[in-house]
Every structure is written in C-alpha cells, then in structure tokens.
Amino acid sequence: MVDVFEQALSQFDIALATRLDLFLAERYNRNALFIKATRDSLTGLANKAFFMDRLRSTLLTKMESSHPYAIVICDLDGLKVINDNLGHRIGDVAIKEFANCLRRATRELDTVARIGGDEFGIISPLKSNADAKDLVQRLEAEVTKTVMYETNTINLKASIGFSLTSQDGVEVDHLLDLADQRMYSVKRNHYQKMRMQPR
C-alpha cells in the first residue's frame, strides 16, 4: 500500500514539476526557454511534456464541448532496421522526414508531438467520430513513401491507433493506453503480412 502511495506521489511531483517548467518558460522567455522546454530538438515538433500538458487541458475543455477529440498514436515502423542497417544518422533522417509527413497531414489546430524515439502523438478536434478514420487515412497516405537520402533508400511506413473522447471517455491514461494498444494491433498485422510475402 505504501509503494502504491509513493508511486502516485512521485507521478504527481513529476506532473507538477513539468507544469512549473512550462509556466516559467512561457512567462519569462518564450523565445528561448519556452521553445527548449516544449519542443523536440530533432524534429521541431512538440515534445512529450507539452503533449501531456495539452492533452490534460484539452480533456478539461472537452467537458464543455460536444465535439469529440481523437488521441492518435503513430509509430514509425522499422526504425530499428534502419538504424542497424544504415546507421543512426540515417535513422534520424527517417525520423525527421516522418515528422514532416505528419505536419503535412495535419492542421494548425492539431497538436503533433514526438513522444518517444519512434512514437508520435496527435490531439485532433473533430466534428464527428467519422473524421477520425479520415485523419488516419490522410496520415497513412502521407507517411507511406520511399525517401532517397544520399545513396540510401529509406522506406517509411506507420502503424496508427487512436481513441475517441466521445466513446472512450476522458481519462488521460485510459485514452493513451487504448490508442497505444490499437496501434500495436495494427503493427502486428503489418508484421504478419510482411512475413507472408514471398521472398
């Protein structure tokens, strides 16, 4: 029981520290500290701290809005293979190009963030639940491509999962877990199809 309490307290402290960092950065030097505190240095997208802060704020706002939000998790397939075969420098190129694809497929009012090494998150306000499938189709169409860099061929592909506030609730961890589980389900399907292809 003590361990559970200490873990909860630790998570609270981390969340509080993150909010304080964001507050101080925005208040005192938006051009420098704010960007450093909220942006991913490799891609220029929002970072995980900003994404989580925006998600919590969005879910509070959702209680006053009838419009659904999609919480999307996008995973860059095959990054380990790229890193192993072509090196981490080319892997970074793949990550940056993947991030640019996400920018092109989303709107200014969407929040797009890099939340892990090869994992990206999107918070997207929708008019209806059906818009979520349209968003996923746009993302898949944009990121599924072959990129040439120097003498290297980089094949980009994504596994995408999402949850909806209109049907999955407004609890942060639950929405993220559902989107993550659905993303991994898509990834397993991709892997199985790849294994079935003739060599």
Question: How are the elements arranged and paired?
Answer:
Elements: H1 2-28, H2 30-38, H3 48-62, E1 69-76, H4 79-86, H5 88-105, E2 111-114, E3 119-125, H6 130-143, E4 145-149, E5 152-156, E6 158-164, H7 165-168, H8 172-196
Antiparallel strand pairs: 1-3, 1-6, 2-3, 4-5
Helix pairs in contact: 1-2, 4-5, 5-6
Briefly say what this structure is.
The protein has 199 residues and is of the alpha+beta class. The protein has helices at residues 2-28, 30-38, 48-62, 79-86, 88-105, 130-143, 165-168, 172-196, and strands at residues 69-76, 111-114, 119-125, 145-149, 152-156, 158-164.
Description of the structure:
By secondary structure, the protein is an alpha+beta fold. The protein folds into two domains: 1-38; 48-196, Alpha-Beta Plaits. It has eight helices and six strands, in the order H-H-H-E-H-H-E-E-H-E-E-E-H-H. Strands 2-3-1-6 form a four-stranded antiparallel β-sheet, with helices on both faces. It has a two-stranded antiparallel sheet with strand order 4-5. Helix 1 (2-28) packs antiparallel against helix 2, helix 4 packs antiparallel against helix 5 (88-105) and helix 5 (88-105) packs antiparallel against helix 6. The chain is globular, with a radius of gyration of 18 Å.
